[in-house]
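General statements about sequence and structure are easier to judge against a single worked case. In the encoding step, the backbone of a single protein was reduced to a row of integers, each denoting a local shape. The record that follows shows the chain in one-letter code together with its fold in token form.
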Amino acid sequence: MSTKKVSLQNDRERAIRALITQASLSHHALGLIGDVQEALGSVKNILSAADFSVVGNPDFYLLSREAISIDEIRRLRSETMGRPAQGAVRLFVISGVQIGEDAQNALLKILEDPPRDVRFILIVPTREALLQTVRSRLALVDTPDTSEDVALAAEGVAFLSASPAERLKRVAAIIEEKDRQSLNQLILCLEHALHEQVLRGQVDEATQLALHDLGRVRAMAYARSSSIKLLAEHLVAIMPHAGIDEKTKKAL
């Protein structure tokens, strides 16, 4: 196995183990990018090694199809309403080469406000197979990040590292111009920075709460009646200041 494949496998294992062992509010969804069948096999092996059975386990749900329809996502949504039967969390693995836009929009509603004890792993062949809105709700485990991903995460790190006064300066134009698009871009940058931290196994309570809160802020930001000023000031106040360490900064 090549060094790159070993690194990818290690990233997957670290992220999946973190996903299934966090019983409190935390990051709840991973996106695995690559060969769908290989990635699904990898997930099953990692789960089995972590004593999370994929056979006869009522807390494990697998939806694996070449093409996934909106009806299948709706059925999955009804399944998420139950409580864990054996462990602390229920895990839903969705694997497909093609997931239609309507199916992804239905999935987005689940990802935006999931039950507390539900976790998701979404497996697709490329990032482009996912809508941007869905990608923003996932911590992606992929081949090395694109320059765009690195730039977004770096901007998020800069905001998280800033003092409250500096943060207010950063959002001043957004507030003054009532720039909803730039507010959504800031949310995306913060999600990229915090997702990077999750994938490195650096998840504390502040990061968990920040990711959960970002999901709610994003949902409100899409509502035309929401106050851009209040949402921007909320981000200034609630985003963790010590959430990004030096190792993560250097990696970006």
In short: Residues 180-199 form the longest helix (20 residues). DSSP finds eleven helices and five strands in the chain. Strands lie at 29-33, 60-68, 90-99, 118-124, 139-141. The radius of gyration is 18 Å.
